[in-house]
Design a protein that fits this description.
434 Repressor (Amino-terminal Domain); about 0% strand; 4 helices; mainly alpha
Length: about 60
Amino acid sequence: MTGNELKRIRMKSGFSQEMLARMLEISVHTVASWECGRRPINKISEIAVKSVLNNRRKK
């Protein structure tokens, strides 16, 4: 997942960076770093992000 993909999916799901960070128990800075490409998203974090965002879309 690229940062642009993360941002698009996050916004489509109705999450702010702060909300996503809180759900994943990480900093907002980390989410912002992923989205702008300063830091790559590791596979474990990617799975967690997808799980949180998919659960949100099902509601």
